[in-house]
Amino acid sequence: MNNNISVCALSEFVNEVKASPEEAEASYGVRLAWQSGARSSAEASSMKIGPHTVSRNFSWSIDEPRQLLGSNHAPNPQEYLLSGFGACMMMAFVSGATAKGIQLEHLSINVEGDLDLHGFLGMESNAPVGFSAIRYRIDVRGDASPETFEALRKQAESHSPNAMTLANPVELLGKINAEEVRDSDT
Amino acid sequence: MGHTSSDTRQIVPIRGDKGAAGIRPDRQAWLNSLTRSRKAGPHLSDHQFTGMADQTLAVHAGSGNEAVTGCVGTPIYQSTTFLLNEDQYRSVGQGYARDRFIYTRYGNPSQWSVQEKLAALEGAESAVVFSSGMAAISTTLLTLLDPGGHVVASNELYGGTYNFLNLELPNVGMSATLVDPRDYGAIEAAIRPNTQVLYFETITNPLLKVVDLRRLGDIAERHGVRLVVDATFSTPIVTKPLEYGVDIVVHSATKYLNGHSDLVAGVAAGSRKLIDQVWARMLNFGGCLDPHACFLLERGLKTLAVRMRAHAETALAVATHLEAHPQVRRVFHPMLETHPDHALANELMRCGTGNVTFEVEGGDTAALDLVGNMTLARSATSLGGVESLVSLPFNSSHSSFTASQRAEMGIMPGCVRLSVGIEDPADLIADLDQAFDQIRPVREANA
Which residue has the higher pLDDT, B238 or B70? Predict the structure, then answer.
């Protein structure tokens, strides 16, 4: 199969969603637990695709380099953010290539971003707290022209959920569930 | 295998489902322009049988006439592999190989023929046959479960299925919770965030309890989990599980479906979406069915409706006789008014089946004697054949349990499982009576 994706199965899913829009509703979740210092662990919750449960038996660690007071035992949150963006772009690019009948021979994506930590540290600066720009470069080899690949890159970017989450404002809805521990309780 | 070069107007014969085609890739378009939708099948011929009674479907559905010779009925396509042309190469490249003949593990006309008949009888879009019932069950469950996934299943399962859940699922990071198949509160309470499948048997072995498929379907829908049932003991003539919200129905086709105790086979039937996924896993696990066995199964299925009527009639006569027999403590058959599920059976079952279970006075020793004395019913495991078979759960299907564990399940000493064939009931009754008369004086060893 081209790119080891069944374009027929992809097409069947597209047309299933046309007939039953609820099949396109996907819900995700992760649970994070602080372990120690800068280190935390994350675990995927069960996911829903359409009305059905998908078990997700995955967990991973997050840490910071020693320079940022961690132990450098695992990727940091920014690297997860960049890889979450890059992997989503890759999925969109490969799906689009498969739909177009393009056979890929090589595909890699480099993603970079610069942060000014003044923002995190709360120091007066004109710099934003978050990334002001994310740069990516797709290296690809396959049976299509560079112009076709560039058009595919644009289509992939505009259809990538993570790319669009980064590029557009997204509402963050947070709340706290707190319990105060008093000296007398310890 | 570039799609663009293959996308010519050249005419090549379609060796497979003529109603199913691949896609024509467009280099400008995005995913929403893809045109292929799922359809029922794959089908061998253009002529599908719908809206007909089971008795007609059993004879005609899927049974194609071969074009070259005009022979009536599906020939045996005893071949490993098929000549390849451009269309078949494209089917591999684009992922519609299930609609073409490539290689017999992927698909063979003898498989398609019997699959179409089974799907028609179950009211399913699609079916896949397997080399055994356990191949159908294990492949179906491993299709619907993801790593970390969990099954809620009956605690009265067939031993092979129990072993798969108990011994194999933990090896691949999955698990099962077993619950009373008729305690619907317990079933619901056992569902966890990682539960993906409910797994039950339509009629349990050996006590022939009937599960309420309507309630199971409701629970599965409310929790967003898949419902799989093993309908080996009921067959589509008796009940059609997909009508109640079951996602996939599986069978040991070795039993009633084939009906002649001369092959081992299994089947999974359901929506094209799910059965395509099951098929893809079958390719990896390898449990496909040989063309000759497909032919035998297809031929056996032609008489399924009339056989089930004969099984039901004979079994009810035998069960009624046993119920009045002084050496019988208790008889289980859903069509007897004394069966705890008789009312439910009347609602869910279009007719009875051939299984009769009964408890002999004198425990397992007397039961062993009885079975040894019978001359017509063969003492062998399995069920659903035209010939009557008799076995004892304590030393066969349920021998891995202790006597007290069996008692907890309701399998008491002296329990006999009789699969009533299609013989004349008077002959079977005469054989049972002489076998009871010859039981040696009671030595209650297992009470």
Answer: B238
Put simply, the answer to whether B37 touches A56 (Cβ < 8 Å) is no
**Termini Cα distance of chain B:** 70
- Residue ranges of chain B that CATH labels 3.90.1150.10: 310-437
3-state secondary structure (DSSP) of residue A129: coil
Yes or no: say if A134 and A114 are a contact pair by the CB < 8 Å rule: no
In chain B, which residues have their Cβ closer than 8 Å to the Cβ of A46? 193-194
Bridge-based pairing of strands B355-360 and B328-332 is antiparallel
- Residue A100 sits at the chain B interface (C-beta within 8 Å): yes
Question: Count of CB contacts below 8 A, A vs B?
Answer: 113
Which residues of chain B neighbour A25 with C-beta distances below 8 Å?
A: none
Which DSSP string do the residues of B19-72 spell out, in sequence order?
A: T-------SS--GGG------S---SSS----S--HHHHHHHTT-PPPTTT--S
Query: Can you tell me the ipTM of this complex?
Result: 0.88
Does the pLDDT of residue A43 top 70, yes or no? Answer: yes
- pLDDT exceeds 60 at position B117: yes
In this structure, the strands spanning B378-379 and A104-113 are unpaired
Residues of A in contact with B32 (CB under 8 A): 14
A87 min Cα distance to partner chain B (Å): 18
Is the CB of A45 inside 8 Å of chain B's CB atoms?
Answer: yes
Out of A56, A96, A101, name the one closest to residue B31 (CB): A96
Contact B104, B79 (CB under 8 A): yes
Out of B93, B194, B224, name the one closest to residue A48 (CB): B224
Contacts of A100 in chain B (CB under 8 A): 25-29
Cβ of residue A129 closer than 8 Å to a chain B Cβ: no
pLDDT tens-digit map of B139-190: 999 999 999 999 999 999 998 999 999 999 999 999 999 999 999 999 999 9
The active-site residue, picked from B18, B105, B214, B330, is B105
Two structure tokens written together for B317: 């006569």
Q: What is the mean pLDDT of chain A?
A: 95
pLDDT digits (tens, 9 = 90+) for A85-111: 999 999 999 999 999 999 999 999 999
Q: Both tokens of residue B170? A: 């933990």
Per-residue pLDDT at A131: 94
The tens digit of pLDDT for each residue in A105-152 reads 999 999 999 999 999 999 987 888 999 999 999 999 999 999 999 999
Residues of A in contact with B149 (CB under 8 A): 55, 57
Percent of chain B with pLDDT over 90: 85
B255 tagged catalytic: yes
How far is the alpha carbon of B20 from chain A, nearest alpha carbon, in Å?
11
CATH 3.90.1150.10 fits B310-437, yes or no: yes
Of the ranges B40-54, B121-135, B356-370, which one carries the lowest mean pLDDT score? Answer: B40-54
B45-57+111-301, what's its fold? Answer: Aspartate Aminotransferase; domain 2 (3.40.640)
Q: Which domains does chain A have, with CATH numbers?
A: 25-75 (no CATH), 76-168 (3.30.300.20)
- A1 touching chain B per CB within 8 A: yes
Distance CA B375, CA B403 (A): 28
B230 is catalytic: yes
Q: Which residues contact B407 (CB under 8 A, 6 or more apart)?
A: none
Q: Model confidence at B9, in pLDDT bands (50, 70, 90)?
A: low
- A155/B contact by beta carbon, under 8 A: yes
Residues of chain B with CATH 3.40.640.10: 45-57+111-301
